[in-house]
Amino acid sequence: MDCRRCHGMMVQERCSDFFEDADVWRCVNCGAIVDSVINRHQGLAWPGLQPVLVSLKRG
Description:
With 59 residues, the chain is of the alpha+beta class. It has a domain at 10-43. It has one helix spanning 36-43; strands spanning 10-16, 21-27, 33-34. Strands 1-2-3 form a three-stranded antiparallel beta sheet. Strand 1 (10-16) and strand 2 (21-27) form a beta hairpin. The chain is elongated. 2% of the residues are buried. The mean pLDDT is 80.
């Protein structure tokens, strides 16, 4: 599996919190974390939606 951010190598890890344990993928290069919830939310992105650069005037 390749990292979406830097295309580095991903390794599977086990993360624990107070309520449950989860398997996640972590990039060894940039440290990006991906789990099932992140994958689901990234899949809901609107197709064709592009970020907009906003410039604020100071004065």
